[in-house]
Amino acid sequence: MKPTRRSFLRGAAAASVGAAAGGAARASSDPAFAEIQPWMQELGDPVDAAPYGMPSEFEAHVQRKTVYWLTADPISSINFTPLHELDGIITPNGLCFERHHSGAAHVDPALHRLMINGLVDRELVFTMEDLMRFPRENHVYFLECAANSGMEWRGSQLNGCQFTHGMIHNVMYTGIPLRLLLAEAGIQTAGKWLLAEGADAAGMTRSIPMEKALDDCLVAFKMNGEALRVEQGYPLRLVVPGWEGNMWVKWLRRLEVGDEPWHHREETSKYTDLLADGKARRFTWEMDAKSVITNPSPQAPLTHGAGPTVLSGLAWSGRGTIPRVDVTLDGGKNWHQARMSGPSLSKSMHRFYFEFDWNGQPLLLQSRAHDSTGYVQPTKNALRELRGTNSIYHNNGIQTWHVKKTGEAENVEVS
User: Fold this and answer.
1) What is the dihedral of CA 209, 210, 214, 215, to 10 degrees?
2) In the predicted model, what is the mean pLDDT of the chain?
3) CB neighbourhood size of 206 (10 A)
4) Moybdenum cofactor oxidoreductase dimerisation domain: which residues (predicted)?
5) Superfamily of 75-281 according to CATH
6) Pick the CATH number of 290-412 from 2.60.40.650, 2.60.120.330, 2.40.128.90, 3.40.50.720
């Protein structure tokens, strides 16, 4: 049974009293407290030691990481956000995962242009200076690669939520509503689709329905208040809220209005979902509701032993908000409602917690997200029954971590 907040705090207070009783005796013998440390005797860094602020050197392990055998070449590859090292819902810019098809392009903003052409009344070319004169908006959205958790379709593969779920980030984007730029060009009646094209060597292109383009898409130039990072599409990228990351074209240089989808490589041979019968689902743009427990997890084991324990995780949906997340400690036999904390924003990450007294016995941890449309995150087996195991995209199945008596955790599946 889930402990009440009062009982949890009572237990925590009792533990604190016990710790305090022995703490006074230990304080004088604990060198970390009793001895004068170097930083207590020396002057610290001056204000300009790091003109662009950096994390503490003691946080140097908090990094994006890649799995070298996943791709043949690092130029067209992936690295992963360290979800287990973060809290809240905002991903720091330097930790947002990378996915490139021809490496991260270094684009001179003074030479960058955005063209709008095709079925429009006026073909236009904007400089970055031109774009800065349009009204802008700020929105917090998640960006998830369609292949996030893709290695898990056929069973447990990667041991750590950074690697199973880390092809995602959540930031505040500042940008121009796409509909304003399209209105400036004037969409012709036959214009039902939009082709977005990037300026990188891959010439990335994706077809986007005009309804979506006119709804909530942004042409973004900042994230978390500062200019886009090079690896995130500096100086300009498309933001397509709630839809798969491949459509968020980076280094955006051209928008073409057409009367039908283009069926280019990234929406035919790639980014379609191959089913068991050999047919492929296409245009599976929306990212379904999903969640993961970030702590404890394989890269974040329990080290404190039995007693008061805080479980933490993230949930998100491409269709709206996450009003509820359930967690289980026993592989789905008993479910408990988690505590949601922080802002609840549409198409954004949501943070959840569950506090419990760990008895030191093995745990089978899972989380299950409910989104604002009523959709409930499915099990992996339920997904496989519908779609087989041929795809590497759109895997939003429930993740299981097995926590051992030692507090170590591993990626497993339960049936």
Assistant:
1) -30
2) 93
3) 25
4) 282-399
5) Oxidoreductase, molybdopterin-binding domain (3.90.420.10)
6) 2.60.40.650
- pLDDT for 168-184, tens place per residue? 999 999 999 999 999 99
What is the C-alpha separation between 22 and 237, in angstroms, rounded? 57
Residues carrying CATH 2.60.40.650, the chain: 290-412
Residues ≥6 apart with Cβ < 8 Å to 229? 93, 94, 96, 223
Are residues 393 and 150 in contact, defined by beta-carbon separation less than 8 angstroms? Answer: yes
Span(s) in the chain for CATH 3.90.420.10? 75-281
Rounded Cα distance between 33 and 415, Å, is 49
Q: What's the pTM?
A: 0.92
Average pLDDT over residues 105-128: 98
DSSP string, 147-180: TTTGGGTTS---SSHHHHH-SEEEEEEEEEEHHH
Tens of pLDDT, residues 222-274: 999 999 999 999 999 999 999 999 999 999 999 999 999 999 999 998 999 99
What pLDDT does residue 52 have? 95
SS3 assignment, position 329: coil
What is the number of residues in the chain? 415
How far, rounded to the nearest angstrom, does the alpha carbon of residue 225 sit from its chain's CA centroid?
A: 18
**pLDDT at position 33, please?**
87
Dig out the tokens for 249 from the structure: 């074209």
Residue 212, CB half-sphere, CA atoms under 13 Å: how many?
22
